[in-house]
Amino acid sequence: MLARPALPSFDYVRANTPDEVVRLLQEHGQGARLLMGGTDLFVRMRDGVIRPQIVVDVKHLPGMRSIEYDEVTGLTVGAAVTMNQLARHPQVQTHYPLLAEAANSVASYQVRNRATLGGNLCNASPAADTAPAVLVLEGRLVLHSSQGEREVAARDFFTGPGQTAMRENEFLKAVRLPPLPAVSAGKYLKLGRNKVGDLSIVGVAVFAFPDGTVPSGYVFRIGLASVAPVPLRAWEAEEVLATHSPGEESFALAAEKAMEAATPIDDVRASAAYRKAMVRALTRRVLGSVWEVLE
Amino acid sequence: MGIHSITVTVNGAKERLDVPSNMTLLQMLRDKLGLTGTKNGCSAGECGACTVLVDGEPVNSCLMLAVEADGRQVTTVEGLAHDDHLSALQEAIIEHNAVQCGFCTPGMLISAHALLERAPRPTEPQIREALVGNLCRCTGYLRIIEAVQTAAKKGGA
Ligand SMILES: Cc1cc2nc3c(=O)[nH]c(=O)nc-3n(C[C@H](O)[C@H](O)[C@H](O)COP(=O)(O)OP(=O)(O)OC[C@H]3O[C@@H](n4cnc5c(N)ncnc54)[C@H](O)[C@@H]3O)c2cc1C
Ligand code: FES
Ligand code: FES
């Protein structure tokens, strides 16, 4: 393993107010990059993929590192909350265990001390491990710009590899998750080259709960990572499970649909064909284990 | 490029330093303070040779800026021994011959030290998981894991 080159030169600015961030983004355009944990940003800068003149540290803005839970409004996670902070937060563990599980699946312990939820989503890698969880929990991203705040649903946020619905001088402040039904179950299964500590080859998150308004009596939501240009929901697979009663047969059919939704690429970690087969296998397995909890 | 005046406590000693924006914490420790125990393996967060404690928690110092350490407490491998006495963990690493070239050892020690601080009696899976971000190319991990278990039995980090 060869060490990467040193970081190219830039100016570091620690932002204290949201307005300051917006002003710097307006002033410098593409020349400015926002910094939280730097675990994506600095690697890309060392690799020469990007060369910002100014790096704006946004993790010290008010509220960026706080987690708030309310029974009525749900969970609000500041964009700069780290993976470890999220994974060990008691209310996240109790009410949103799927999110804690996804956060804990990222990289290594020391990377998770710096890597943030917001950075993972803004980086918009197809392999972002928290994306499937945020998608199936129907998270909303709180974006700040000179026009104030707006919210974008996670399902509309990812637009391509490294591409998001964020506008030029917008930044992510927080992620909001709605309150969950009284009974629910969720699981994230990540296949990497190693058991832990690696980027996912395929990631599948399932979140399910009973719902009398649905023909099958249950809502199943399925989120996929590393199998398409963006993290995505497997809508057709979800539709199968809304209309067929839960069980081996419908899970197999849904897994087939999830595989069809996947449009992966060949890369150093796995071939496209292997990934597709794994989407089917993992989806089936996760559906089974989530159902065991709900049944 | 900006130069920042920072105050950082390294292994208990307060340091006032002027650091350029693009200097990493790793470069600051090695090049400014001469603390060469902390190693540069990959500069990309993968090998863990650069692991140090910041406010008690392990981080990859190759992916953190020196200026970000302003006002914080940093502990490197040089800070694990006290009054010329190696820590229980350091003793255990020696006892188990858990070092060959030694390049990974400072980072291993820091990660394992942090583990023992948060979980004084870790299970083997906990040890393995805590050391996932520390690669060793020669010793093999078994002796390192055994050393951490021995240190835990002897009362921790
Ligand atoms: C060794 C290693 C292993 C990894 N393994 C995994 C893994 O298993 N799974 C996984 O999902 N990821 C993995 N990653 C990637 C990375 O750690 C995560 O994506 C992390 O969550 C990024 O968060 P960060 O705070 O470090 O982001 P940063 O690097 O600080 O920022 C990421 C991107 O978002 C932009 N940005 C930052 N803040 C904002 C904001 N508030 N608003 C808008 N844009 C912003 C930055 O400019 C940058 O482009 C790994 C990285 C490394 C180095
Ligand atoms: S040098 Fe920092 S992780 Fe390898
Ligand atoms: S002892 Fe050589 S890398 Fe671990």
Q: State the CATH architecture of the largest domain in chain A.
A: 2-Layer Sandwich
Choose one word for the global shape of chain B. Answer: globular
Strand runs of chain B, count: 5
SSE sequence of chain A, one letter per element: EHEHEEEHHHHHHEEHEEEEEEEHHH
User: How would you name the oligomeric state of the polypeptide chains in this document?
Assistant: heterodimer
Radius of gyration of chain B: 15 Å
Q: Any idea of the CATH topology of the largest domain in chain A?
A: Uridine Diphospho-n-acetylenolpyruvylglucosamine Reductase, domain 3
Number of domains of chain B: 2
| CATH-defined architecture of the largest domain in chain B | Roll
Q: Flag low-confidence runs of chain B.
A: none
Summed over residues and divided by their number, the pLDDT of chain B gives a mean of: 96
Got a strand count of chain A? 14
What is the CATH topology assignment of the largest domain in chain B?
Ubiquitin-like (UB roll)
Strand order of the largest sheet of chain B: 2-1-5-3-4
Query: What percentage of amino acids of chain A are in beta strands?
Result: 15-25%
Number of helical runs of chain A? 12
Q: Specify the biggest β-sheet of chain B.
A: 5 strands, mixed
Q: Give the helix/strand class of chain A.
A: alpha+beta
